[in-house]
């Protein structure tokens, strides 16, 4: 199924009795959901772009590359630094803006600019009854009732099919500096590196990236050239030690954003969203290789098969662990951890409200 209009999509949903799998570009799916595929690629095109107002409205099937090229022409960008996980997950195809929103896809700049949902101003979608629903608009407003804008971001096609999104965009900075320091054992290890990242994020110097990868701690500052130079110097003074300036900053952040270090390598990949202060303990407790982003809030972990119980035990009550890519030996491992009873009741109630006929697939299998 590949509708080209919102009306056509609504009619398709009303007439189907099968459980369907919603797909944009197919580049971010975790696991394998079963059922007929409903593609949103036919709902494409930028409907409105106002550079002066920093707003963009696009249909959900619009390719992400088209939007990024349009913004680049006005020296603007999506603030949340969309990851490209095709290499990591072994996918091909072209990412769509609807898929980005449905996955709440957010890169290293989340520590400063927020997640995708924080740039989302409005949505249009078709629910499981075939009804067209609109929430929000081109300006941010506080409204009563469900905040459907935030709810749809990260819903992964389980509550409705996005047809249009409105986003706040951001001007590209004049300058960018990446500070780098060793966080290997000789420099105090990962715990010392993460402590430095937390110190930087707690400073007034507006850090836009804080990561540990490949034995190095990375910090990024962006903005006007004079401000960037001042803040980078102030951070080096605050942190002490041997913090140097990286010559290849953009490439380093692209590698962190896309988890390039694990692309094409054998093993299972876990995505852990955790309390930042627990990141060091979790990584040192587990066997495997880690790429740590968001100052410790996001851990990508490459492990051998059969580590699921250990990974979820290490995370415990301090976050959640998703099996993003499974090796053959983890074929029976659950994609997501069990929901807490209160969360499960809330999730069930939302699905009953937006998809009473259970038209949309509720997650994949490894």
Automatic annotation (TrEMBL):
InterPro entries listed in its UniProt record: FAD-bd_PCMH (IPR016166), FAD-bd_PCMH-like_sf (IPR036318), FAD-bd_PCMH_sub2 (IPR016169), FAD-linked_Oxase-like_C (IPR016164), Oxid_FAD_bind_N (IPR006094)
Molecular function terms from GO: catalytic activity; FAD binding
Pfam families: FAD_binding_4 (PF01565)
Domain FAD-binding PCMH-type per the UniProt entry, residue ranges: 1-172
Entry keywords, A to Z: FAD, Flavoprotein
PANTHER family, A to Z: D-LACTATE DEHYDROGENASE, GLYCOLATE OXIDASE SUBUNIT GLCE
Protein name in the entry: FAD-binding protein
């Amino acid at each position: 199924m590949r509708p080209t209009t919102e009306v056509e999509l609504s009619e398709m949903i009303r007439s189907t009795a099968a459980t369907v799998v919603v797909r944009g570009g197919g580049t971010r799916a975790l696991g394998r959901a079963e059922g007929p595929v409903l593609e949103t690629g036919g709902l494409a095109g930028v409907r409105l772009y106002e550079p002066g107002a920093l707003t963009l409205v696009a249909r959900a099937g619009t390719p992400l590359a088209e939007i990024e090229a349009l913004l680049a022409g006005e020296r603007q960008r999506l603030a949340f630094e969309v990851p490209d996980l095709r290499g990591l997950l072994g996918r091909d195809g072209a990412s769509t803006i609807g898929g980005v929103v449905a996955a709440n896809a957010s890169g290293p700049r989340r520590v400063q600019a927020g997640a995708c949902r924080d740039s989302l101003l409005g949505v249009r979608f078709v629910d499981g009854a075939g009804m067209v629903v609109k929430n929000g608009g081109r300006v941010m407003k506080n409204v009563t009732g469900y905040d459907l804008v935030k709810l749809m971001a990260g819903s992964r096609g389980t509550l409705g099919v996005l047809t249009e999104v409105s986003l706040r965009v951001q001007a590209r900075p004049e300058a960018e500096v990446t500070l780098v320091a060793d966080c290997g054992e000789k420099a105090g290890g990962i715990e010392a590196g993460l402590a430095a990242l937390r110190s930087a994020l707690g400073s007034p110097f507006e850090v836009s990236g804080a990561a540990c990868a490949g034995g190095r701690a990375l910090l990024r500052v962006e903005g006007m050239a004079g401000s960037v130079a001042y803040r980078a110097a102030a951070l080096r003074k605050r942190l002490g030690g041997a913090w140097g300036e990286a010559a290849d900053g953009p490439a380093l952040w692209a590698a962190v954003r896309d988890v390039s270090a694990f692309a094409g390598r054998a093993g299972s990949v876990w995505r852990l969203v955790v309390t930042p202060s627990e990141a060091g303990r979790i990584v040192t407790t587990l066997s495997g290789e880690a790429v740590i982003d968001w100052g410790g809030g996001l851990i990508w972990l490459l492990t051998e098969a059969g580590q699921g119980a250990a990974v979820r035990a290490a995370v415990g009550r301090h976050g959640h662990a998703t099996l993003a890519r499974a090796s053959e030996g983890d074929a029976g491992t659950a994609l997501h951890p069990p929901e807490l009873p209160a969360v499960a009741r809330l999730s069930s109630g939302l699905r009953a409200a937006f998809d009473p006929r259970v038209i949309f697939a509720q997650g994949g299998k490894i």
